[in-house]
Amino acid sequence: MYRVLWALGISVLVLLLAGFVVLASAGGENGVRFYKSEYYFLGRQAIWLAVSLPLMYVAIRFDYHKWSKLPWLTIAAYLVVLVLLVAVLIYGRETKGSRRWLGYGMIRLQPSELAKLVVVIATSVYLDCKGRRLDKFVKGALGAALIVGLPVALVLKEPDFGATFVIGAAGVSLFLLAKEMRLVHIGLFVCAGALLFGTLLALNPNRMNRISSWVRSSFQTSDIPEVEIEKSAADSVAELKRIADSPQPAVAAVATRARTAMKAVRDVQDYKKGRAMEEGIEAVLKGVAMRLQAEPPSFAALRNDLRQQIRSRDREKAAAHQRDHSLVAIKRGGLTGVGFYESKQKRKFLPEAHTDFIFAIGAEEWGLGFSLGLLFAFTVFFACGMIIAARADSLGRMLAYGMSLLVYSQALINLWVVTGCAPTKGIALPFISYGGTNLLTAMIAVGFLFNVGRQIGLQPSRPKSRISNV
What we know:
Layout: H1 2-26, H2 28-35, H3 40-61, H4 66-69, H5 71-91, E1 94-95, E2 98-99, E3 102-104, E4 107-109, H6 111-130, H7 137-157, H8 161-177, H9 183-202, H10 205-218, H11 226-244, H12 251-266, H13 271-292, H14 297-319, H15 321-333, H16 358-366, H17 368-391, H18 394-418, H19 436-454
Antiparallel strand pairs: 1-2, 3-4
């Protein structure tokens, strides 16, 4: 087990060092722009690490069995997090359509990050205490669902869909780990959560624009080459201009040709070319209306549809902005990278270069080796967590599994987003991205893993029965 703990510690150390090296470059531009200091974010991250280390030490030394032996402690931590989640909805500052942070002055706290830890602790303690009673719905399974569901609902209200997914996935994984809970109950909870998640997601225009942009770029492919699509659209717009430039243009003919051109331009993927063609169609309609000294009703309807098409293209372009520039950074890095501090995408192209999209800056400057090394370090971290969970007692197994999954699943989601494998979502890369509460949460999770690992083999064995060999 000591080898596993050594491997765990080395993987965390590697991730922290990589995070500070990349942040030194990725945070420079935004640091100068917003705070007049190139090393502002690096210094703040160092302060948060200094705060996190003592808390990680406490998490290592504080016997995790006391969370079960002292239930008031678990209840108190859970209630504090609920209060913080409610407070952020009332007093939190709205940023980019979400309320996620509480703060005073320079100190900012993200309660949803703390909720991840507390939900894993409270759920693990509850499942361990209930044991066989978990096969009952009201007296067992429903309580576990409420422990996970209340924080999830509050985080979803912010809204923070990334944290909601991570917390929900950790909760469901712990349900599956508790073999006494029935699959039909777990399926019911998952369906209810997915329905709520999907409904609120569908009612959020910003997130839906990101999803539609990602689906359009990833799945709506055509067998026709893009060059031919652009040529067909350009020919259609040119034909519209030819008909409109005739001495006495027929309104019906212009309207029909305009609809055909709009349909052709809609399939053009390139933003600049498509937008230029749409503006050309609008200019033709305006010119014909001015020559007729009146705008036909069909033209008014066409211009309204065209404006909606243009707005849709603009929204998709805005939603895909960070993903597109992230992919540019990764491709530019290639195998060996462009060199430390030589990233171009961090210079006003990637607004979140030091937080959610810091991986792209690292890949641009350090190349494929950095990307594979980071993925390997996270995989080693998760593998060590699984080994610890497999050898621990019931409570330790659920705590180790839950803490490992919190960090690893968040890392995977971030990597999927940055590489364009998932819709754009603001979620930090553990140990790497700038963010105090995120770093604090990850370090405490590491502390729990060390706590469980160091006690394996130290638990007193159960006394043997006097009437059997068991």
